[in-house]
Design brief:
Layout lengths: L1 H8 L15 H8 L21 H9 L1 H16 L32 H11 L1 H15 L6 H26 L3 H40 L9
Helix pairs in contact: 1-8, 3-4, 3-8, 4-5, 4-6, 4-8, 5-6, 6-8, 7-8
């Protein structure tokens, strides 16, 4: 129910191409590079709940961190078969660093799986986005309408949540506190739904690409 509701709310936002102002910042600039690409993921985010990948989407929400660790390994070895964790860096370096957190300097060479575990726990949103970006970059996939709506919806929701929490801190009104709590809950549900759909979308794309590139068995005739 929550999954379908959150996907439906995306349609309240415009699907017009990203403006230059929306291609700024770490996340916007990363996605902005692919805004004009004509190739797309085979299934969009809003199509995931009605696709055969829906169970995988739900499983992602129930077992978030283990699935993200497995998916990053799967994506990296999809791009470079047999590479294991050798190409892993924190968030794959897509979103830069901050203070003491610098991709490539977090012990990824010696303990990549441990670092990925910490990434999925501490930076859950970036972990999903980075795995999706590995697949997007490998196949030069652009942004579909759902991606554009998602960026706008997520930005609006986060700003509204921040605003409500600030007001709640400055006032003693119980109604404002309750509203802030409700908005936080909506933001959490939105995050889980979109993260699950994004992970399932990348998983489906990997399966499709590997299936298409697999050698076909040919019949032998005498």
């Amino acid at each position: 129910f929550f999954l379908f509701n959150n996907m439906a709310c995306l349609f309240c936002f415009s699907s017009t191409p990203l403006a230059d102002s929306e291609k700024t910042g770490r996340h916007g600039s990363t996605l902005g590079r692919y805004a004009e690409n004509s190739n797309k993921f085979e299934i969009s985010l809003c199509q995931v709940p009605c696709s055969r990948e829906c169970p995988f989407c739900v499983g992602t929400m129930l077992c978030y961190c283990p699935v993200q660790i497995w998916m990053r390994h799967r994506a990296l070895n999809h791009v470079s078969p047999g590479s294991g964790w050798s190409h892993y860096t924190c968030c794959q370096g897509y979103y830069g660093g901050c203070c003491c957190v610098q991709p490539g300097q977090m012990g990824e060479d010696s303990c990549p799986s441990v670092c990925m575990c910490l990434e999925s726990c501490i930076f859950p949103g970036l972990a999903v986005s980075a795995t999706s970006m590995v697949v997007r970059e490998a196949h030069n996939l652009g942004l579909d309408e759902d991606d554009v709506r998602l960026i706008r919806c997520s930005n609006c929701l986060q700003i509204f949540s921040c605003f409500c929490n600030i007001i709640a801190c400055l006032t003693d009104c119980e109604a404002v506190d309750q509203m802030a709590h409700i908005i936080d809950c909506v933001a959490d549900i939105m995050f889980c739904s979109v993260a699950g759909c994004s992970t399932a979308q990348a998983y489906h794309e990997i399966k499709k690409r590997e299936s298409n590139s697999a050698p076909q068995m040919q019949k032998m005739f005498r």
